[in-house]
Amino acid sequence: MQANLSVDDTLKAFDTDDLDDEELIRRTRNGDHEAFGLLWKRYSPKVRAIVNRFVQRSADAEDLTQDVFLKAFAALPRFRGDSQFFSWLYRIAFNTGINFSTAGSRVEWTNIDSLEEKTTHTDPERIWIGKEMQRSANMAINGLAPAVRQALMLNTHKGFNYEIVSAVVGCPIGTVRSRISRAREVVAAALVD
């Protein structure tokens, strides 16, 4: 015997805003892509906030947010539920941000040729001095040991605090401080010479 459902009961059965993460995950695993869309809607602002710490451009943050959800969707069958869904998603987002920020092709050095365009000074000598200082700084940075250069660039170029740099490079905060201090000394010495 079928139960007689009212129109309101039928609509309520399809109201997925009230579903918890567990149910949305179960539905997604069973092929309901709309359920995963609701997980996206629920958590994409939080994921974007996480990946924003690792990028400078809004477009990169959007790309990384999408990448995080693609990885989560692909890995969802392996999600055991030992932790909260967002804790698991946070780890994916954090690791994706770390991988993005440590990719060698992502480091953008100052374009020496564009310094003249950026300066408000028209004095050729001042422009030349600025270019020479930038060349000296770049040479000093390029001469640093890779681990020291990476710590410096993550801190100064990406704006990461010591804690995040420590997590990215996988060493204690004290080591990160030491590397950044050493790098700054080398660059300062190159600018004085």
Write the layout of secondary structure elements.
Layout: H1 7-13, H2 21-29, H3 33-52, H4 58-75, H5 85-102, H6 115-118, H7 124-142, H8 146-157, H9 162-169, H10 173-192
Short structural description:
The protein has 193 residues and is mostly helical.
What does this 3D model show about the protein?
With 193 residues, the protein is mainly α. Helices cover 70% and strands 0% of the residues. Mean pLDDT is 79; it is low at 5-14 and 104-119.
Sheet-strand content, in percent, reads under 5%
Number of alpha- plus pi-helical segments:
10
Largest sheet: none
CATH architecture of the largest domain: Orthogonal Bundle
The CATH superfamily of the largest domain appears as RNA polymerase sigma factor, region 2, helix turn helix motif
The chain-level structural class is: mainly alpha
Q: Which sequence of SSEs, written as H and E, runs from N to C?
A: HHHHHHHHHH
Number of domains: 2
- Runs in which pLDDT lies below 50 for 5 or more consecutive residues are 5-14, 104-119
Radius of gyration, Cα only, in angstroms?
24 Å
CATH topology of the largest domain: Rna Polymerase Sigma Factor, Chain: A
Please tally the β strands and state the result.
0
**Average pLDDT metric:** 79
- Overall, the morphology is elongated
Helix content: 55-70%
How far do the termini sit from each other? 91 Å
CATH class of the largest domain: Mainly Alpha
